[in-house]
Fold each of these.
Amino acid sequence: MRITAKTALAVVAVDQFSKLAVVFGLGLRHRYVIEVMPPYLNFRMAWNRGVNFGFLANGTEVSRWLLVAVALGISAWVWRWVKGEGHGTGARIAAGLLIGGAVGNVIDRVAYGAVADFLNMSCCGFDNPFSFNLADVGVFFGALGLVLLVKRQNTP
């Protein structure tokens, strides 16, 4: 379980450092947009009070704390599940990515009332209006890794 904990802590650290550096250090929270390598990478500020694409973003304190509880509950369940026998290193790392990403976004909800999203990527004539953060990347690749690695490990 050390690899899961180390991975989760690394994701939380990188996520929170990136948010402090870009959102607060570079002043994105006041500038709203910083072109980095347009159109491929820009920093575009978005305070997400919901989940993906603003779903459940009604802005109430009840929904804020409900989302915190759900993220922590899922993280605890994944931690307990991956602790069981039969899970290889890849699955444990994937679980750490997912847990670290969820906890990174929980920290934002508790500290700021919303998740700080700032990465915006577009390509090939498609102008993506949505922003995300490194915690979201951890959740995505962690969930994908669990789906792919656990199936592969349990197949005869």
Amino acid sequence: MADRADARTWMHRGIFVALAFWIIVFQLVPLDMRPANWAGPDLLLAATLLWVARKPAYLPVPVIAGFFLMADFLFMRPPGLWTLLVVLLTETIRRQHREFRNMTLVVEWGTIAIGIIGITLINRLIIALVMAPQAPFGLAIMEMSATIVVYPLVALFAHFLLGVSRAAPGEVGRRGQPL
């Protein structure tokens, strides 16, 4: 039987939903009409991976899949490919969330970086196999690198301003369920 989520969990889910909407809208609003020479970080990916690594109960799979599928349509990516890769990565992290409790930020950052590199390269490979048009390789590497570099800043923001911190070993929820 599924555990019911308490008010704190629902509050953090709401915070993530609001943050995800803000990130998507911010990326859609044109600040300059000239084409960009650089690619910024994928803040939605960094925030999602952080949320799942720190508090997996705060972010269920349908929320992740819904936001990334919506982003696929809005950013004109192949629908569902990036979503599938992100869901697979988040579920891999979710399965190992107990190991993330004892990791230092540097080890967590490295683990997340390996996952980001993996899904980026798999995404590029699949798009190349079906011969669909894709962004230049340099821009994809730039976005991937920027996402990896910005992860610790997202972690600090989430920890100090949003209250998304690691569960301590032995920490239990309001109803006594292990976190």
Amino acid sequence: MPVSSENVLKAIKAMRESTPQRKVAQGVDLSINLRDIDPKKPEGRIDLDVALPHEVGKPYKVGVFGEGELARRARDAGADLVLGRADIEALGRERKRAKKLADEFQFFLAQADFMVTIGKALGPVLGPRGKMPKPIPPTADPRPLIERLKKTLKVRTKDQPTLHAHIGVENMSDEGLAANARAVLDAVEHRLDGLSKVRSIHLKMTMGKPVKVEV
């Protein structure tokens, strides 16, 4: 039985009522606590890319590895950074800079024939963070992918059986927050083939207390 939109909206209203007002818009996070799952085992790891119906305030950053026509189209399509083959090799020698880039950007796309070079130079940095680039042909139009990724949330387990998802900011409407929450919940439910392995679900603003979502 999926989580109802009514229960998500009820939790959002309770979260707003119980959280003190601040001068800046607070973030809104969804946490899903799991049971009978060991994230240290391959079968217990969850790594999802969830396309949200609404942006979460500030679009996610997308970097593109490519040259020539693909690089030009990527810049025109709003890529936050475009790097060529020489840049990849330089980053491979500058591990500190590579780590900073990997932490700053949520997603990467790469010209398909760059993937071997990226794997050798940046695989040790991007791989553990779940940020290896998605390959695209050099003749492809990257615009639809870039626009989709700017609203795509990466949801993954780390050491604990808990999923954390930043689904928006408090100045979004209740309906917008609920739609983003439902997108994450639906993706997790599909991955787990139901909600039997979900122990609890909570919503929380940055400075507030967690509010339980009834399942």
Amino acid sequence: MTGPGYPWYGVVTGDGLEQGDVLDSLPVFLPPDDLEDWNEGSAAFFSTEERNVVVMTQSCDLVSGREKVSEVLFCPVWSRSRYAAGEFLGTPKGLEEARRGTLPGIHLLAACALPGLERDVGIVDFRQTYALPVGFVRKRAAAAGPRRRLLPPYREHMAQAFARYFMRVGLPTDIPPFK
């Protein structure tokens, strides 16, 4: 799924972080369903779950020793197999719509054929975000061994899709369809 001269992924090791880095099995914190009942003085217990994620924070904000952020922003990367055949993203039509970019909250990543890092097509879900402290993420990245990094122009394509998702404007009254 890559064209000549334009590989989708590179392999990285160590604690360096860039936008487009894919971290497998990173623990994320999930708030309880009853969090809306929280008020000052309340306690809330968050669960954790390991998820495959992609770094959404811009690379320039993650330069080691010159970080401009204290937390790294992620979105989950789901495998195609997560979606049952009856679900929209479990169908060829749903995947094609996502590939074309007509589903604003979803972005597809190509399958990866790098030795030892083989993965099926990835489904990035912009509708879910997580943040973790930079130091924690660096330690996990260093311990992960070889991992995937989305390369240009695919990294910028994903970032642009993420920006489009968050900058959408809903109009109170739209122009009627032309028939």
